[in-house]
Each structure stands twice: as structure tokens, then as C-alpha cells.
Amino acid sequence: MDDFLIYLRLGFDHITDPGGYDHILFVIALCAVYTVQQWKQVLILVTAFTIGHSITLALATLQLIHYKTDLIELLIPITILITAITNFFFREPKSKSRLSTAQQPNRYWRYGLALSFGLIHGMGFSNYLRSLLGNEADIVTPLLAFNLGLEIGQLVIVSLVLGLAYILINIIRTSQLRWTLVVSGIVAGMALSLIINNEYLGKLLQ
């Protein structure tokens, strides 16, 4: 049980670590178009991301798939940039009538994007977890605990983002569109900086 709690804490610390803020940026980008009132959409979106990264986190940690670590470190900020850019064009239907059903594929496409990008982030998570495991014989329990820690940390980030959005939109009366554009713009800029400064990209361009 002590080992379980240790890996649970390590998973939580990994995703919430300001020093490794790439995963934080991605979660922020996912939530930037939603408010507290749209928590159901956020829950589905986060679940899609969870399913994606849980799959590759398990496969990579069990060494059932292999990949270039440098490539994944480049792809992660690219997923952040793409997600932030899609926010500029995303419009959540305000009406629940039949007239708004034509806009539903936009929402489903976003869930698919979260699932797909989650696969990439899962491989990034596994790099850290495998370095912790070393020659550990039993990796199933640490894997489950670490993944659960990731999810708890992820939910904390989501709660903070939606809480800040509530304050700015409902109390300070900032428009939801302005909130989305500003947050997405900041995230896109930071992701672009990560891409430009990525060493693997530099090698590819040489």
C-alpha cells in the first residue's frame, strides 16, 4: 500500500509540476472553450484524453510499443499548439434545439482530437515512469497508481481553469469569447516557443 501511495503521489506531482508544464498547457487548452456550466462536455473531453494516454502509458511502460523519445518530446508541444489553434474556431452551440444539431460534429471531432493526442501524451508520461521503475519486477501496481495520480492532478488543473473562468466570466463579466481567445493565445505562444527550442527539431532542420 505504501508503494501504491508513493507512485500515486509521483503521478500527481508529474502532471502538476510547473517545471514540466507542457502537460498542464495541454489540459488548459482543452478546457479553454468551456465554462463551469458545461462541465458535462469537459468531463467527456477529459475522459477521452484519459483513455488515450492510459492506453499508451500502459503499452509503453510494459514495453509493448517502442518509439523515439526525442520525437515524442517534439510532438507533445505540437499537440498543444494545434489544440490551442482549434479553440479560435470552436463555437459551442448555445441552443439545445434541433437547429443546433448540425454543429454537434464539431464537438465530437474535438473529443476525437483529445483521444488521439492523449495517445502521444501517454508515451511522454511513460518516459518518466519507466525511469522511476528501473528494474522493478512488479510494474502493474506502480502503473495503476501512477495513472491514478495523473488523473487526480488533471482534475485539479481542470477545476482551477474552470474556477478562474467562472470568476472572470460570471463575476467580473468578461466575455467567454475573450477568455477563450486570451487563454488560447497565451498557450499557443508558449507551445510555439517549446517547438522552436526543441533540440530534436533543430537536428532535423540541420
Automatic annotation (TrEMBL):
UniProt cross-references to Pfam families, sorted A to Z: HupE_UreJ_2
Bilayer-crossing regions: 20-36, 43-65, 71-90, 111-129, 152-172, 179-196
UniProt keyword annotations, A-Z: Membrane, Transmembrane, Transmembrane helix
Lineage top rank: taxon: Bacteria
UniProt-recorded name of the protein: HupE/UreJ family protein
